[in-house]
Structure formats: C-alpha cells, structure tokens
Amino acid sequence: MLKVKVLVDNSTLVGKYYTGEPGFCLWLDESGKKILFDTGYSDIFIKNAVLMGIDPADADTVVLSHGHSDHTWGLSHYAQYMHSKGSAKRARLIAHPLALDIKRIDGAPAGITFSRETLEENFMVTLSSEPLKITDKLMWLGTIPHTVEPEKALGKIVNDGVETDDFCHDDSALVYEADGGIVIITGCSHSGICNIIAYAKRLTGKDKILDVLGGFHMQNVPKEEMERTVDWLAQAAPVKMHPCHCTDFKARAAIARRIDVDEVGVGSEFCWE
C-alpha cells in the first residue's frame, strides 16, 4: 500500500493550517518504507511534516525529481534538521546525475546548492539515469525518452563557465504498481507529462493509469499545444489526475473537461493499494 501526504505545494487547503510556497515535496509511505520526494524551496516541509505528525528524520530514502531550486533547496535545511537531532542516520538519496548541474534561469541561480561531496557527507548517494527499483512496487524512471512531446529548454546550464540551453534531461518521476494499474508521481514534468506517462507504461507493461499526481509544467501553454496535450492525456484515459505545483488554472481546467481532476494542496492525503 502506498500512502502519500503533500508537505509542500503552491496551494494550501481550506481548514488545513499549513504553509505553502512555490515548491513541491511529498511524504511517501510504501508498506513501511518512508520516502521523501523533493524538499521544496525552504524549511517549510519540515515544519508542515511535524504538524502532520511526521518526523522527516524517519526517511529511508530521499528522491529528487530534478535539480531545480524549488525542489532541492530544502536539502540544506534537512541536513541541519538531522544534525540538530544528533541523528547519525544517512538516508539513501536518489537523483539523476544531471541534477547536480549548475542551473540558471534569467541569470539567477536555479539549481541545487549541494555539491556531490556535501551530498555524500549527508546521504548515501545513488545517481542513476537508468530505471531503479526503490521497493518491489515503486520505481524511479531515470532518463525519460521524448517519444510523444519534443524537448523544451528552460534556463541555462553552466559547464566550465560556458552557458548552454538546459533541456532538463535530469527531470524524472516515480511509478507505483498498484492493484489494477499504475500511479505516476512527478515533480515538475519538464521532460513532458505525456512522455513520462508513456515511459511508465512501457516500463511496467501496464496500460491502466489509476492516478497521476504532481506538477505537469503546464503554464501559459499555447492553445494548440494545450489541445494536443489534453487530447493525448484523454486517450491515455487515467482514472483520475491530481495536477498541482507548476500547473496553472487554465491547464487544470482544460484537463478537467476531459478527465476527472481533484484538488491538491498542502495536507492532501492519498492512498493506493
């Protein structure tokens, strides 16, 4: 059984008094194995977790969907939290090798602040571009092939002082093999939400999609592109979708006209057998 709680999102829910920010972080519990998926932009994932009765120090694994600041800058706060508790535990950290690239958007720093060396001081680091089993039923997808949607650049990466377009090849996701289908969990979907779904289906050999939760990176999408994406998603026929974080209202509304879409915010809880 997979249980998920939203620790960080752009939105908060009425009647649930947590803090939101333009970032993303989930707490996953897969049959007793605790997984932190992304860490948001600041320390609020820790504060929200404690209010929800979760101790982030219990995480067995930390997964970074990609290297952008709104998903990784909480790592420094996590390390400080672990040190303040006097914990000697070093969780496993899973990320794409390119997640450690120096990234800039509009000239400003937009990538992870930890070096490889600092990460290894605090975590047991696994950098993988290949699919990787986290548990028997939960898989890291690694590099996402662009089989449906073309690559898109966002900002720059810096190598040896030279800036080139960043096509976010470090962006990945998780797939959970539930009873009767798959559940896809994504951070920002820079690699394309349709590409991610297609690859998750290919790796698992399962066509039925029970749910897709996370950021779809659909903001200010041109009309024709929006129609193509929504048409493809509708043909994929997920039972339900939970777009959030970097998915704007127009995109969520367009998807909701064709697919069952539910609200997401800090404090949301989900469960799949």
Q: How would you describe the overall organization of this protein?
A:
The longest helix is centred in the C-terminal third of the chain and has 14 residues. The chain is built from 7 helices and 17 strands. It is globular, with a radius of gyration of 17 Å. By secondary structure, it is of the alpha/beta class. The strands form 3 sheets. A 7-stranded mixed sheet has the order 8-5-4-3-2-1-17. A 6-stranded mixed sheet has the order 9-10-13-14-15-16, with helices on one face. It has a 4-stranded antiparallel sheet with strand order 7-6-11-12, with no helix packed on it. It starts with a strand and ends with a strand. Strand 2 and strand 3 form a beta hairpin.
What does this entry show, briefly?
The protein is α/β, with parallel strands linked by helices. It has seven helices and 17 strands. The longest helix has 14 residues.
Beta-strand portion reads 25-35%
Oligomer: single chain
Structural class: alpha/beta
Number of strands: 17
How far apart the termini lie comes to 4 Å
Largest sheet: 7 strands, mixed
Order of helices and strands: EEEHEHHEEEHEEEEEEEHEHEHE
What share of the residues lie within helices?
10-25%
Mean pLDDT across all amino acids: 97
Poorly predicted spans: none
What is the molecular shape? globular
Strand order of the largest sheet: 8-5-4-3-2-1-17
